[in-house]
Design brief:
Radius of gyration: 47 Å
Oligomer: single chain
Number of strands: 5
Helix content: 55-70%
């Protein structure tokens, strides 16, 4: 009655402040009295249970072990012993050469037969049951009243002992309602209480399905899972061990997997190198159990544990396979996971593409779209033979026509595959009864036909396929041949004005890729209608943020033949050069923010502006170049490090502009000479350019000397990129060309320390184009006798000139011959430099 009253008055274990206050203020005296009357104190872990247990009868005790017997048996002498103990006694007698005797009476026995004492065993079992019930009652009181955390730990330890001693006691624990009380202990603020509660629940649930279900009631599983993220490894280890025990009951697997974050935490723990090895093994074993529930397969795959899904896909029935493929199609996979999936189930997915139901094929295509978006997995799928079914589905017509939504998926997969850096020209497959490749003319024709006869989604994907096919030089030539033979260039150009941005971007990229092979065709097609050029310029000038579409449009215009005068005039009349010059300035001053497209965008603008300098003699172009100070703009770009193409373009522009300087310089008119001034020297005119003998500036006459560009161009002669060297040397050569003061041009190079770098360019084993320019420049430099005498002592220069004379074309040989004649006159170089005197 006292116990019942206690359970009614005091609620289950709770650490809230209100209940603790109630216990502390109103019940302290009662607790003392009750503990005294019930003799329920757990003040010491070693306290004997004799004070509150029913004493064991002497008949229950084995004379040999002095412990209560579990399997009592009677021997010939009428004495009763524990079966195991008396068997051991008889064995010892034989081993020592004695006849078996009774341990108590020492009487020699004729027989060692053992007779079970059924009545005594039942009596002991009933005594044990009464004893365990009373022990659990004591634990129940302490788990309810919680007189102290020490007593709570002792009570939990007592429950563990009872359950370990007798499996049947686990049912008694459940029937007496202790499981919810122990579960409440998991919320204790005391770490030792939590640890012992986790251990107790694990022991209670072990090999007892009813207890597993009782433990999992309510929100217990969520609470246990929270322990998996606890900072104390002991709590994590005990929690995952308990969770493993619960997971051995299959109905609970879905409940465990349904807890938000449970599978992710377990996957992380199973793969952790920092975790306790036991915890790691239990986490892995728990996941193995959870795999039995199909509902857990998807969240496992989402968290990187793909093998259960792949195993079911490989081994399951068609229905299971479809379910797994549908799960797979919804996943966003990491690149290494894509490669794993492709290698494990790629062949079966390809087989389902060919033989599966429409529903299965659709799910498969969705999965393959994700898998194929990685280069390694794409190569694996290609090797597994994905092209034949993919192409057949894409080009299917009539009765066997594939639904458009599935053709879109097929086109997306194909776009992924062609970007896999695979030599597609070597991958042959059967189509329409003969062997073809993706680059075969009829396959490309089919792609071009399909592009023009489908909806926007498929158009975009197939344009991306052609972009991928034209990314490499080898495959681009094949595609270009098919485009020419099909006359598809006009229809492809139409897509740059499509409504959908992705289609416009793909079309611009494709046209940019083939412009190197079809530049004149593209130039004629675009130039034939200013509407297309206007559309491109609208895209380029649209925003102050550089987009992928803008970059593709600029690159396309930049790749068109740069010396095509008709196209240049159209662009000029559209105001394209003005727009691009402003864009270039905005990039320089940070008005347009830098992003991943800025390098290609800036280079493209520079190349387009460069084309106007090839016709710089035209008044419109000349005024534009002066107005926007193109010389200074490109001189600044010449110093852009890490962008070789931009430096090449900049040096080329300076070369083109500088060639016009001799025509633009303003030569002063000399006043008429009076009679009295016939024999006097005219006063020198200040501010004249030494090379052009007129008034020069970078902005108005593009003079390299006045613009201080000489030193910057000389610095580029040491560049690793030969094209940068060639372009820079070409610009410097304009200081030595006909129509300027060549001697002064040489002195300008000398004063800028540019003679030796030019000679080094000649000596180094450069390309034919660089060597031709170097021979030309050196011949002009060697016209200065003092320099020629110094160079004559340098055998390497002589050898380089001889090689040019021996292997060069007719013009180069003539120039090299003149240079060799200059060299034949010379000795000392460094001293000669200091003796140079100008008039």
């Amino acid at each position: 009655m006292v116990l019942a009253h206690v359970l009614q008055v005091f609620a289950p274990f709770d650490q809230t402040s209100s209940r603790l206050s109630l216990i502390n203020q109103d019940s302290e005296a009662l607790l003392v009295v009750m503990e005294s009357s019930l003799n329920l104190s757990f003040d010491s872990d070693e306290q004997s249970s004799d004070n509150y247990e029913e004493k064991a009868f002497d008949a229950f005790m084995c004379p040999l072990t002095r412990q209560v017997m579990r399997d009592p048996v009677t021997i010939e002498s009428g004495q009763t012993f524990e079966r195991e103990a008396i068997i051991k006694w008889f064995k010892e007698c034989r081993e020592t050469g004695r006849n078996p005797t009774c341990p108590l009476t020492q009487i020699t026995l004729k027989s060692t037969e053992l007779t079970p004492c059924i009545a005594l065993r039942k009596a002991i079992e009933e005594w044990r049951k009464r004893r365990e019930e009373r022990e659990l009652e004591k634990a129940q009181v302490h788990l309810t009243l919680v007189s102290s955390e020490q007593n709570a730990v002792a009570a939990l330890r007592h429950v563990i002992t009872i359950c370990q001693r007798n499996e049947a006691s686990k049912d008694l624990v459940r029937n007496q309602g202790l499981i919810p009380m122990i579960v409440d202990m998991l919320r204790s603020s005391n770490r030792q209480v939590r640890l012992k509660a986790l251990e107790a629940l694990r022991v209670i649930a072990e090999e007892n399905d009813d207890n597993k279900e009782a433990v999992s009631e309510g929100d217990t599983i969520r609470t246990i899972i929270k322990f998996l993220s606890n900072e104390y490894f002991q709590e994590r280890a005990l929690a995952v061990t308990l969770l493993y025990e619960l997971s051995t009951l299959e109905p609970l697997c879905e409940k465990i997997g349904a807890v938000y974050g449970a599978i992710l935490i377990l996957v992380g723990m199973a793969s952790s190198r920092a975790e306790n090895i036991v915890a790691v093994e239990k986490a892995e074993s728990t996941l193995k159990n959870l795999e039995k529930c199909e509902a857990n397969i998807k969240p496992m795959a989402e968290n990187g544990r793909l093998m259960p899904l792949l195993k079911k896909l490989l081994e399951g029935t068609p229905e299971v396979q479809l379910s797994m493929i549908e799960c797979l199609s919804e996943l966003v996979l990491a690149n290494d996971a894509k490669a794993t999936v492709a290698s494990k189930v790629g062949p079966i997915l390809i087989k389902i593409m060919q033989t599966g139901t429409l529903q299965a094929r659709e799910a498969t295509l969705k999965a393959l779209k994700e898998i194929s978006s990685n280069e390694a997995s794409s190569k694996t799928l290609i090797e597994a033979g994905i092209f034949p079914p993919l192409i057949n589905d894409l080009f299917s017509v009539g009765v066997y026509k594939f639904p458009m939504r599935l053709k879109e998926l097929s086109a997306s997969i194909l776009a992924n595959l062609v970007n896999s850096d695979t030599q597609l020209e070597t991958i042959a497959f059967e189509h329409n009864g003969r062997m073809v490749t993706l680059l075969s003319e009829d396959v490309v024709h089919s792609l071009l036909h399909l592009i023009s006869n489908t909806g926007p989604a498929i158009e975009c994907r197939l344009l991306q396929v052609l972009v991928g096919l034209t990314d490499s030089e080898a495959s681009a030539k094949e595609v270009v041949a098919a485009v020419r033979s099909s006359g598809a260039i006009i229809s492809l150009i139409q897509f740059i004005e499509a409504v959908h941005r992705d289609i416009r971007v793909a079309a611009l990229k494709l046209l940019g890729n083939i412009s190197s092979y079809m530049g004149q065709d593209l130039s004629d097609a675009l130039g034939g209608s200013t509407g297309h050029l206007s559309s491109l310029m609208r895209v380029i000038s649209d925003t102050n943020i550089i987009t992928e579409e803008q970059t593709a449009a600029v690159k396309l215009l930049a790749d068109l033949p740069e010396r095509e005068p008709g196209l240049t005039r159209q662009l000029f009349d559209l105001g394209a050069f003005r727009t691009l010059a402003i864009k270039l300035s905005e990039i320089k001053h940070g008005v347009i923010l830098s992003n991943r497209h800025v390098t290609i965008f800036q280079e493209g603008i520079a190349r387009i502006l460069c084309r106007i300098t090839y016709g710089i003699s035209e008044p419109d172009y000349l005024n534009f170049a002066m107005q926007y100070d193109l010389g200074t703009v490109f001189l600044d770009l010449l110093q852009t490090t890490g962008q070789d193409n931009l430096q090449i373009i900049s040096a080329t522009v300076l070369d083109n502009l500088s060639q016009e300087s001799k025509n633009l310089t303003r030569v002063p008119e000399l006043p008429p000479v009076k009679c009295c001034q016939v024999f006097s020297k005219p006063a020198p005119i200040k501010g004249l350019c030494r090379v052009h003998h007129g008034f020069c500036s970078m902005k108005e006459t593009f003079c390299l000397l006045q613009g201080r560009a000489v030193e910057r161009l000389i610095a580029c002669l040491d560049h690793q990129n030969e094209q940068v060297v060639e372009a820079s040397l070409g610009a410097l050569c304009t200081l030595l060309s006909d129509g300027v003061d060549i001697i002064e041009g040489v002195f300008v190079l000398y004063e800028a320390e540019g003679i030796r770098p030019i000679l080094d360019v000649l000596v180094e084993n450069r390309s034919r184009e660089v060597r031709q320019k170097a021979v030309w420049a050196v011949e002009r430099i060697l016209r200065i006798d003092d320099i020629a005498r110094e160079v004559a002592s340098d055998q390497s220069i002589g050898s380089a000139l001889v090689e040019a004379f021996r292997t060069g074309d007719y013009k180069t040989r003539q120039i090299a011959e003149r240079a060799l004649k200059h060299v034949d006159k010379l000795p000392s170089f460094s001293s000669a430099y200091h003796q140079i005197q100008r008039a």
